[in-house]
């Protein structure tokens, strides 16, 4: 009998922690949503499970720290991956020194940049999807909305989403945090970063009150 | 002592006047909408509609409320966001009235007003609000002294998407009700681009694909059905993300598109799943109307937040999170 503890209930998934094969593991399950049309629900759950599984591995190949995947069950729409013993970056904001916060955000920006350099977008780059170990080592999770063959537009949207997450969740620190993320981003992407950050600004203007 | 407020709303195609008292009674709520013959709203034509119909609508609102102009202790107007010409016409009427009656003037944010009137009706304290209309698609919640837009459209608003599709299917403006009726006859779901990005979403790809289905011979009811299931499914997802993220216990649905029963059904499903309370604002308070401006005007006035006539310029691009909400506890 395998024992589980529920460690998080997200918008679309349940995250269970378990010990198996003498490893600490996480099972991410996407249960059915009865209020959606069956076909949309079935499609999304499967598509995102497959997507997440592939992209976790692909991102690893790009040198971005993501949990290793051990198994996937497409009937259940679940993925078994390594447990990361860390806290969400979101929870650390306000509890670490300003210098620490800058360091964490820079690293966040570097991780996004590493993905973008491999033409991958994360799709949901919020501070709850970045996990920080006690050692300071950082991981990025939640790849169900990730995409490959990313264009400038897609990368611009990804950065726009970082900014949106900062302005809704970390309004007291949003300027410093965004600056640090973009610094980290720029340090990896180099000259190409300008075009993407310009696109990020453009996207912000676009949706608003036409 | 109760305060009686006259609220004027004129951000887009509707002009409305409502009288509300500070004990939360909607005494009257009168409005009229310009229906363009073809195409979307023309800002200057809508503004002309407001200045032509405005005085009569205001008079009706006072009559229905059973008050005279002298009973009005406060004038509130929709200061933004919205179409410049419409906002200016409405603001002018409000300023004239406030000066003439020698009462304070309050400039209200249109989106904030949708939320506050919804809270008045439902008794909700602190909801996640899904605000869906012709010009807006936002998921909003209160945090750190402001209403913050957790999710929004990256391109066109949901109501706009429905209207534009409706126009290509030969429907009258606004097309939402007819699309809903057609969708009830739909049987077969055809996949349309489902585009959620973080807590934001996009409808333009879906619109293009839906028009292509129609011109490719898919029956109109099936296209309408597929549009609703996809567009509302996306909204449900971002609402769900906002609930999971903010941990709030109430879900409020408002705006013109809130009239749709299928959307209501889907969002009440979201509420059940997350064990939160759900309320759909009733049609007469969900669309653009003056009562919401009047009620928010009262809240704002009681918090000491009035505006001098000389400084009451309109704010066409006033974002929801730009205003400090002094009447709500942090
Ligand atoms: N491998 C892991 N190890 C430890 N904790 C994890 C792991 N994966 C996820 N978590 C925790 O569970 C939370 C939710 O996971 P995830 O973001 O993948 O789910 P989700 O349902 O997609 O979330 P959302 O609510 O953003 O949609 C994460 O923010 C993190 O705190
Ligand atoms: Mg997540």
Largest beta sheet: strand ordering of chain A: 1-2-3-5-4
Could you say what the CATH topology of the largest domain in chain B is called? Nucleotidyltransferase, domain 5
Query: What's the helix count of chain B?
Result: 10
Q: What is the CATH H-level superfamily of the largest domain in chain B?
A: ATPase, nucleotide binding domain
Order of helices and strands of chain A: EEEHEEEHHEEHHH
> What is the percent of helical residues of chain A?
40-55%
Measured by DSSP, the beta-strand proportion of chain B falls in: 15-25%
CATH architecture of the largest domain in chain B: 2-Layer Sandwich
N- to C-terminal distance of chain B: 27 Å
Question: Structural class from helices and strands of chain B?
Answer: alpha/beta
The gross shape of chain B turns out to be globular
Assembly context of the chains:
heterodimer
Major beta sheet of chain A, specifics? 5 strands, antiparallel
Integer count of domains of chain B = 2
Tell me the β content of chain A. 15-25%
Mean pLDDT of chain A: 95
Name the helicity range of chain B. 40-55%
Q: Report the sheet with the most strands of chain B, covering strand number, pairing sense and barrel closure.
A: 5 strands, mixed
Key descriptive features of the protein:
heterodimer; A: 210 residues; alpha+beta; five-stranded antiparallel beta sheet; three-stranded antiparallel beta sheet; 18% strand; globular; B: alpha/beta; Nucleotidyltransferase, domain 5; 2 domains; five-stranded mixed beta sheet; 12 strands; 20% strand
């Amino acid at each position: 009998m395998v024992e589980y503890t529920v460690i998080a209930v997200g918008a679309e998934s349940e995250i269970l922690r378990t010990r198996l094969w003498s490893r600490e593991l996480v099972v991410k399950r996407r249960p059915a949503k009865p209020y959606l049309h069956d076909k949309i629900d079935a499609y999304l759950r499967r598509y995102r499970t497959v997507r997440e599984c592939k992209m976790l591995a692909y991102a690893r190949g790009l040198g971005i720290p993501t949990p290793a995947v051990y198994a996937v069950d497409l009937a259940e729409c679940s993925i078994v991956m390594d447990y990361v013993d860390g806290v969400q970056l979101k929870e650390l904001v306000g509890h670490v020194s300003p210098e620490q916060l800058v360091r964490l955000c820079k690293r966040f920006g570097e991780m996004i940049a590493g993905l973008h350099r491999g033409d991958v977008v994360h799709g949901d780059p919020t501070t709850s999807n970045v996990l920080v170990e006690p050692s300071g080592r950082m991981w990025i999770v939640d790849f169900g909305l990730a995409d490959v063959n990313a264009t400038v537009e897609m990368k611009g949207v990804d950065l726009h989403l970082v900014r949106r997450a900062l302005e809704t969740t970390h309004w007291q620190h949003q300027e410093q945090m965004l600056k640090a993320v973009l610094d980290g981003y720029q340090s990896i992407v180099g000259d190409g970063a300008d075009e993407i950050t310009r696109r990020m600004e453009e996207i912000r203007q676009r949706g608003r009150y036409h | 002592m109760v305060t009686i407020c006259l609220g004027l709303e004129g951000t887009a195609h509707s002009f409305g006047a409502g009288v509300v008292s500070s004990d939360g009674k909607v005494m009257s709520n009168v409005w009229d909408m310009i229906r363009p013959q073809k195409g979307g709203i023309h800002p200057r034509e809508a503004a002309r509609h407001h200045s032509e119909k405005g005085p009569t609508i205001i008079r009706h609102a006072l009559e229905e409320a059973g008050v005279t102009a002298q009973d009005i202790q406060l004038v509130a107007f929709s200061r933004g966001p919205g179409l410049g010409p419409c906002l200016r016409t409405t603001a002018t009427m409000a300023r004239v009235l406030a000066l003439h009656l020698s009462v304070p003037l309050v400039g209200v944010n249109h989106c904030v007003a949708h939320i506050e009137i919804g809270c008045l009706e439902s008794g909700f304290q602190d909801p996640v609000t899904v605000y869906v209309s012709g010009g807006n698609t936002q998921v909003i919640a209160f945090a750190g002294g402001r209403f913050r837009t957790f999710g929004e459209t990256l391109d066109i608003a949901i109501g706009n998407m429905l209207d534009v599709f409706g126009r290509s299917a030969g429907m009258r403006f606004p097309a939402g009700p007819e699309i809903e009726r057609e969708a009830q006859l739909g049987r077969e779901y055809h996949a349309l681009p489902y585009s959620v990005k973080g807590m934001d979403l996009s409808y333009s790809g879906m619109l293009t694909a839906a028009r292509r289905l129609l011109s490719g011979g898919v029956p109109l009811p099936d296209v309408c059905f597929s549009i609703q299931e996809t567009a509302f499914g996306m909204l449900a997802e971002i609402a769900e993300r906002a609930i999971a993220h903010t941990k709030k216990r109430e879900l409020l649905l408002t705006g013109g598109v809130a009239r749709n029963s299928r959307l209501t059904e889907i969002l009440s499903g979201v509420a059940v799943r997350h064990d939160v309370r759900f309320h759909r604002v009733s049609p007469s308070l969900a669309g653009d109307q003056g009562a919401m401006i009047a009620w928010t005007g009262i809240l704002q006035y009681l918090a000491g937040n009035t505006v001098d006539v000389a400084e009451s310029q309109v704010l066409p691009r006033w974002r929801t999170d730009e205003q400090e909400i002094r009447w709500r506890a942090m």
